[in-house]
Amino acid sequence: MREALVTAAFRLFVERGYERTTVDDIVTLAGVGRRSFFRYFPSKEDVVFPDHERCLADMTRFLATSDRTADPVDRVCDAARLVLRMYADNPVFSVQRYRLTREVPGLRAYELSVVWRYERAMAAYLRERFAGRPDGTLRADVVAASVVAAHNNALRSWLRSGGGGDARLAVDHALECVRSAFGTARAAPAGPAEDVVVVVARRDVPLWRVVRRLEELLARS
Question: Across all residues in the chain, what is the average pLDDT?
Answer without folding.
Answer: 88
